[in-house]
Amino acid sequence: MAVAKTLEAPIEVYRFEPGKDAKPRYDRYTLTVEPHTPVLTALLRIRTELDPSLTLRYSCRSSICGSCAMQINSKSRLACQTPIGPEIEKHGRLVVEPMRNQPVLRDLVVDQASFWRHYDRIEPHLKLDPRHPMPEGKPNPMTPEEVARFYETPRCIACAACYSACPAVEADVDFPGPMALAKLYRFVVDPRDQAHQDRLVRIQTDGLWLCLRCHLCTEACPKDVRPSERIRDLKELAIAAQGGTEPGSRHAIGFKENIRERGQLQEMKLVRQSDGVGGMLAQAPQGLRLWRKKPEIAKKPRAIEDLDQLEALYRELDAPPKDGT
Amino acid sequence: MRRHEVVVVGAGLAGQRAALAAVEAGRDVAVVSKLHPLRSHSGAAQGGINAAVGAEDSVDTHIYDTVKGSDYLGDQDAIEFFCREAGPTVVEMEHFGTIFSRAPDGSLARRPFGGAGFPRTIYAADRTGLALLQAIWERLATEATRFTLYQEWDLTRIVVRDGKVQGIVAFDRKNGRFEGIAAPAVVIATGPSGRIYARTTNAHSCTGDGVATAYEAGALLKDMEFVQFHPTALPDSGILITEGARGEGGILKNSKGERFMSKYAPHVLDLASRDVVSRAIVTEVSEGNGFEGGFVHLELMHLGKERIESRLQEICDFCRNFAGVDPVTQPIPVYPAAHYMMGGIGTNAKGEASVPGLFAAGEAACVSIHGANRLGGNSLLETLVFGKQAGLAAAAFAAQATGRPTVTDSDVEASQAPIRAMMARDHGEDPAQLRAEMQATMERYVGIYRNDADMLEGIKRIRALKQRYANVRIVDHSQVYNLNLTDALEVGHMLELAEVIVVGAYARTESRGAHSRIDYPKRDDARWMRHTLARKGPEGPELSYSPVAYTRWEPKERVY
Question: What is each CA distance from A183 to A3, A62, A127, B450, in whole angstroms?
């Protein structure tokens, strides 16, 4: 192995003990490290060489236990999987903070109760129907193709990096968060689970449509579970399961058809498409207020030129997927 | 004081399976763990779980392979029970929801593993432990109303009075509060203690707390000198590269480009038993056939990108992230690292330890089915088979227990007083320093190859560290998530176990399985086909010995 050159890494670490410290502070440590040294190794060296009172969660140091997710230069990452060199190179500094969207217990340790509560709420276990028992004394047969449908969801290590990165969690504590939804997806594609329909119906009013589609969870996920893509898959399955009758799915379908017509969003029409006439009436006061500020929302937008090209795009997207996609 | 009927300490596969059995038996169960159950080290197991379910395979072959792998130190009655339970155990885990890899016909896929006569290792890509851990937790969590989870609690004491278990003392990391949890039955399932060694595949949390605590409470430890070194770990970090990599066709090469295993195991080459392969690698490196930095190469490149990336997905990530090599195009540098403790709290096949009311299962226990060397794929199976047995036995014991076990204020104080003293010191030993010296000592003097003089030195050094530990100091005085306190407790636990390992190893004047003595290179069945038992005495471990249980397999020379 090549001899790596070392660097002097300045590391700023968030320190805070609620109830004891008036406010958080950042302690600055300097360590000589190799560029590929993981942030976790540096934090453990701080603990053994400089300050044993620094506290954090960690265990496996090989990205399989999910303990050491934290904010590293403002991104939700596993400390064990993040080398220092590229961080310093890119940002000129290394700032380590606790995960977001979860209250700090002390230093880098957060209270994960809400994260686990959302995980429990999706009922993360096989739900069986007594009329269709498991084969006695034998495993269920499952083809490699059926196993492949799980995509990467079994790789999830529940590190909560996605939960920390998610702006929808920040905005709404009732949003289940990316991990719980990806986990739900794992059960609705499991041929052994016998509650697919119930799960898909329930999640529609339990937060599925609150996802903002920003993909920050997918960017944060250290195991490439790609939660936002699993949420998208869930939405498709949910629409199929309920025939697109639930407001969230009607909004998604309405959005698609609405734009297809003129190439631009017709906002007034979208309200009717999503929520029906009753919904329109219920939203009328808010609509009026908006209309006073921005009268153009009531107008039908002009159709874009080359609408036929858009139609061709739609037809392509609606076509059944080709092999391997 | 809290009160339950069964307290399970440790929430990996063994602990959770024990808890599930005890819950199903109708007992009020507590699960105490220093990690969230899904963060347990069981999740790091990669390669697979053995069960002789293939048409060409048989339970008898699995038994024979395990007996031979154990170098005839495994108890054959327990091994027979263990291998018979394999099929039903795997089926149960599949029914709980484990996502196993599949063969084209829809059956459970199997891969070859070291020391096994047939491909019998059922797997979930290279994250079998994680797949099983998720499934058992998903199943156990459906019983959430029937057990209490003490998450991120550290065990400090098993209380034994009048010759019977009374419960435990533990503290809650969130607020530093020490509490007694009374119960007539306690199951220890705290897993590995590999952090006793400098280079280990084990997680940082694998510090043998339950085993050490049981030893301090008077339980007998069994065969602690048998430490398995996994042949293929990344040299710098000790991160495990699964045996499944060789099962899939990976080969080991030295710096001369030779496939050196042909010298050491001409019949099965790279898929010899772990002790054999680890010794081969150490021998190659010490004879100058290693690469600069002291390692050999594990080559997967010839398997092709598709196979490597689908069957060994996590390994690809580990190599790329932690060693800077891409196994699709480059060899992986590997060297052996401490991996598994064959020894542990001595139990029978029901999980019963030597103290009434105390039970153990998984890596923390020693039944013994692994004897002097464990076969790959047998440890995941062990956690589930004997986790269930220990849970059932603990539940039955609790149901019939008479009297009311109590953990008194003075029991709690007995755990807390030394901590206060450690915090009150102005000067004292740094737990991290003691840990580093212990790890280096064990690596150097009680490693893969052992001899009389080294081990005598090891005993001396570990005892000196134990003396210094009496003056250990905790500088962090916070009540909240005080890891400095956890460090101090853990190193105390590990020093106890390190002493048992080296004293047992020094006494055993033969080579068997993972215990290789340069000065006694042969197995000595006449004298040493027996288990080492260690009891804590005032001057250190007091050793005694017990016979190995025989059924059908006469000891033979072990050749692969």
Answer: 42, 22, 14, 48
